[in-house]
Amino acid sequence: MVLLEFSMTPLDKGESVSQYVGRSLEIIDASGLDYRLNPMGTVLEGEWDEVMAVVRQCFEKMQSDCGRITCSIKIDYRKGGKGRLDSKIASIESKLGKKLKT
Amino acid sequence: MVLLEFSMTPLDKGESVSQYVGRSLEIIDASGLDYRLNPMGTVLEGEWDEVMAVVRQCFEKMQSDCGRITCSIKIDYRKGGKGRLDSKIASIESKLGKKLKT
Amino acid sequence: MVLLEFSMTPLDKGESVSQYVGRSLEIIDASGLDYRLNPMGTVLEGEWDEVMAVVRQCFEKMQSDCGRITCSIKIDYRKGGKGRLDSKIASIESKLGKKLKT
Amino acid sequence: MVLLEFSMTPLDKGESVSQYVGRSLEIIDASGLDYRLNPMGTVLEGEWDEVMAVVRQCFEKMQSDCGRITCSIKIDYRKGGKGRLDSKIASIESKLGKKLKT
């Protein structure tokens, strides 16, 4: 299982792009994969092919009406890791002995 | 104001690095800046110099006992934008007319 | 066509990882796609599925003997863009009227 | 010493942004730091404060006439590492026993 965080943004639609980001979130939310949206991107959890398929779907949608797109992806693979959307944060809070802002 | 997401990881400490990430979170939590921790990084909000000072402090701490460090940073600047740790997510949820997983 | 830059690093193999990066470069070099290696990653040019297939191959190889892997990917899509491994740099040099360090 | 790769792009200037990237490269080229431009970003070598000062200068320039800016930064610190703009690539080529496309 991997955690994959990504953000995808059109460069040719001006500075307000939440309409396009919203369409991606519809795809993500309907994908069946577990995810967490944050102010700078969305983190998906799943097998490599599963999470990449979702990113590809978002790209195809955005490509349909955007002439230039920038996308950044960060992947964290850990053998046997599962449920890490929650456990990574819990592990840090446990080490510090307090709740953090999430 | 900018949003800055970053993650910082030692490469020479084996696959369990939450101890080192925990130290960064202590610095972040004590910085006085608003932030949100997510499974892949932490998003800070503030002026350029403010957020960069926090990242630098985390680096200095990690550099004190790590021989190799990888760090990725993503910045989103918007003129006049403030309170965007919450408003960016709210804007997408409002466009979709539903709550998303955060 | 997209430009895709990526770097992929094991977290559990100590601070010298060029052996693992070397294996990825063998895969990239044999892929038939055009690419440019730089000190922080490799930039591939091709269709989405082509470049992603190469990244996936590198991941599968690394996953075979690494317990934790971090990977960052950045994509720049431009409609109709081709030959951009060279033309993006040429365009900037042309604007500045001088050669830059590449 | 660190290697720092970054790219900085306005979101509100349409899909052709090489004019803005060109201004950043002027700042980089005049900084006195060693660097390498690639199709997806520029890699600087120097101490943390030195390379960050250059990124900040590029941001201040872009902020002067752009309403929204996205910036991604990747840092690779290695204790005692110097001259790594060339040596990282040389190390991989040496391992593979052949020249790669750079």
* CA-based gyration radius of chain A: 15 Å
**Oligomeric description of these chains:** homotetramer
The biggest sheet of chain A, with number of strands, parallel, antiparallel or mixed sense and barrel status, is: 4 strands, antiparallel
Strand content of chain A: 25-35%
Structure overview:
The structure is a homotetramer of 102-residue chains. Helices cover 40% and strands 30% of the residues of chain A. The first copy, chain A, is an alpha+beta fold and 102 residues long. The first copy, chain A, has a 4-stranded antiparallel sheet with strand order 2-3-1-4, covered by helices on one side. In chain A, strand 2 (34-38) and strand 3 (41-46) form a beta hairpin. The longest helix of chain A is centred in the middle third of the chain and has 16 residues, at 48-63. Chain A is globular and about 45 Å long. In chain A, 46% of the residues are buried. The mean pLDDT of chain A is 96. Chains in contact: A-B, A-C, A-D, B-C, B-D, C-D. At the A-D interface, strand 4 of A face strand 4 of D. Strand 4 of chain A pairs antiparallel with strand 4 (68-78) of chain C.
Outline:
The structure is a homotetramer of 102-residue chains. Chain A has 102 residues and is an alpha+beta fold. Helix content of chain A is 40%, strand content 30%.
Features:
homotetramer; 102 residues; alpha+beta; globular
Topology readout:
The structure is a homotetramer of 102-residue chains.
Chain A (H helix, E strand, L loop, with lengths): L1 E9 L7 H12 L4 E5 L2 E6 L1 H16 L4 E11 L5 H13 L6
Antiparallel strand pairs in A: 1-3, 1-4, 2-3
